[in-house]
Amino acid sequence: MFALRTTPLRQLPRLALASRQLATDAKKPLKVLCILYDGGVFAREQPKLVGATENALGLTPYFKEKGWEFVVTSSKEGPESDFDKHIVDSDILITTPFHPGYLTAERIAKAKNLKLCVTAGVGSDHIDLNAANERKLDVLEVTGSNVVSVAEHVVMSILVLVRNFVPAHEQIVSGDWNVAAITRDAYDVEGKVIGTLGAGRIGQRVLQRLIPFNPKELLYHDYQRLPADVEKSVQARHVEDLKEFLGQLDILTINCPLHESTKGLINKETLSYLKKGALIVNTARGAICVAEDVAEALKSGQIGGYAGDVWPQQPAPQGHPWRSMRGPHGNGNGMTPHYSGSTLDAQSRYAAGTKEIIENWITGQEQNPANVIVTGGEYATKAYGQRIKK
């Protein structure tokens, strides 16, 4: 059984460890390394695009006032990248799930000054959390900053697949008009059995937003049941066995974190558990699904569609099978770049949250317990798998 809930079961103490380490040289300027995607002309035209390197989460004035060195870059791959050059003497690392800087055990070993890692957004699986624990790094993320944005994207993606929207739009753009070619694969959400793999903050909001569509039934699979009042509010039934859960679904939406127990969970075998022609929406993490198995299942018609915005590697390679995969009728691909949790509204929230985490850390103030992933050499949440406390 794997853990999917994101809410810690206990209140965490203050992150005093980092503050004590810092107290001895509090006047020493710190170095902050920030890995973001380049926005180019779009970031210059839209100042609210704070998730890009050009606007740097709005943090440049904050660090300038403190006299800290603030390095912002998109260069993150390979030994000659800015990431590898600057991580060696950085005190704080800021990354984002939308252009993840992969903090591997090897990079952690080189980062002798590193004390704090902040994910500007939600999802810290791009950090080797076990290695972070060995070094007793603090890893935090801005929990809740993207939940509404992602839940809306899930519902949109479900509708895109169910109504066969992409081929219909492509038909118009190409100058064609053939209603029958589209409607042969177009359905309603009403009357369908829909299930979420993971019923945390996002999964619950997805279920809530699906209720007005009058589905036949809403199901969820999680490592433990929701509280009775929450289960009633989302009108969903818990199914403990994964095979039984998948076998009932017309539509599967994946809303669980990526960790050892969920990596590759949706594969050739588990795809076979689904009803033939079932639809899948994945806005959680690409590596929860085996890419080649999904592409083959779509090609064969075992699944009727696959949509989402998360990829096993980001940016996705040009030849990745999810870029070009199609079903037997040339449909079923609803993939986009990773942006579901990076709307301008969400960017504002995770930029503010990143600043708050760093300010709390530097001043020794208590952190929001929900934001803490690892601290003091231990996991502070079950979101990345149930762990036995040392």
Structure in a nutshell:
The chain has 16 helices and 14 strands.
Notes on the protein architecture:
Helix 7 (147-162) crosses helix 10 (201-210). The chain has helices spanning 16-23, 40-45, 60-66, 82-87, 105-110, 129-134, 147-162, 165-173, 179-183, 201-210, 228-234, 242-247, 268-273, 291-300, 321-324, 344-363, and strands at residues 31-35, 69-73, 92-95, 116-119, 138-141, 193-197, 217-221, 236-238, 251-254, 278-282, 303-308, 333-335, 372-375, 378-379. The longest helix has 20 residues, at 344-363. The protein is of the alpha/beta class. The chain has a seven-stranded mixed sheet. The chain has a seven-stranded parallel sheet with strand order 8-7-6-9-10-11-12.
Question: What are its keywords?
Answer:
390 residues; alpha/beta; seven-stranded mixed β-sheet; seven-stranded parallel β-sheet; 16 helices; 15% strand; globular; disordered N terminus
Quaternary organisation of the protein chains: single chain
- Please provide the count of β strands: 14
Give the helices and strands as they follow along the chain: HEHHEHEHEHEHHHEHEHEHEHEHEHEHEE
Strand content: 15-25%
Number of helices: 16
Strand order of the largest sheet: 2-1-3-4-5-13-14
Q: How much helix is in the residues? A: 25-40%
**First-to-last CA distance:** 20 Å
List low-confidence stretches.
1-25
Global mean pLDDT: 92
Task: State the shape.
Answer: globular
| Integer-rounded radius of gyration | 22 Å
Briefly note the structural class of the backbone: alpha/beta
Biggest beta sheet summary: 7 strands, mixed
